[in-house]
Amino acid sequence: MKVYTDIAQFKGVKFPVVTSGTFDGVHLGHQKIIQRLREIAEESQGETVILTFYPHPRMVLFPEDNDLKLLNTQEEKIALLEKQGVDHLIIYPFTKKFSRVSSVNFIRDILVNKIGTRKLVIGYNHHFGRNREGSFEHLKTSGPVHGFEVEEIPAQDIETIEISSTQIRNALLAGRVKHANAFLGYPYMLTGKVVKGRQIGRSLGYPTANIVLEDKYKLVPSNGIYVTEVSYGNDRYKGMMSIGLNPTVNGTERTIEVNILDFDKDIYGEKLEIRMVDKIRDEVKFGSLEELKQKMHADKEHTLLTFAKLNA
Asked: Which CATH architecture fits 2-161?
């Protein structure tokens, strides 16, 4: 996959089959659109193109909304889109000036003149341009004028729940990791660097790697204990992760700590990728360290049982 941070670099693509959007999460709904892009490109001997935006439009339009967190870092999104078989990814800078571009000018200047769109595929209820004035009907009218066709993909759902990035964010903030993963089509990921912590887990027989995330806008699920799969280098390990304040030891700062099973290496400063499988329980303040240790043993048994069921 070729990645462009300057749309002027995008040239000479044969029969561009295009979609646009933020694609936060690259969830099953997004994957359906990409699958259709690939089908059309194969039929027409063309190439797939995704036009996405950075920063996220809401961060530019509503900077006072500090609560917005994203499902993917830029690095994660690029990797996920490449895995989906996309040929070209254009990351367009989203600014206040760009937000004022009319839908007519967006179609003419971006989709037609700069990308050369021949077929445009969009998701259900897609809007674009100044004040979200552009719509599917608008595109259907403009397409013949500018020499491209447009196709709308209906909303995807699981058990009658429409899949959206907002639904996934809400599920993660409620600790419903399995629901979020079902919508994503892959385990939710946290990626970060290992730093030194208070080393209390080590004294209990459960040493943990304290993780600092690479992107401050990355969404962290609700506090609690989770079953995880941890990638270090080319190897994968079972793990259990704690997100929260560590109330039993009077913690005051929210931390992300993962106990990697059957692992004994010095990895300070190293990068870990953590895939979240399921939530075990909420965070609890225990009466003593011994009670905490007993519960951590039960958490480990839960983790091992979860993987045994997954591999059965």
From this structure: 3-Layer(aba) Sandwich (3.40)
Q: Select the CATH number that applies to the domain covering 187-310 from these four: 1.10.10.60, 3.40.50.300, 2.40.30.30, 3.40.50.2020.
A: 2.40.30.30
pTM above 0.85, yes or no: yes
Per-residue CA distances from 254 to 32, 62, 82, 194, 242 (Å): 36, 26, 33, 15, 10
> For the segment 104-127, what is each residue's pLDDT rounded down to a tens digit?
999 999 999 999 999 999 988 888
Give CATH 3.40.50.620 domain extents, the chain: 2-161
- Strand-pairing partners, residue 150, are 120
pLDDT digits (tens, 9 = 90+) for 201-230: 777 889 999 999 989 899 999 999 999 999
| d(C-alpha 33, C-alpha 38), whole Å | 9
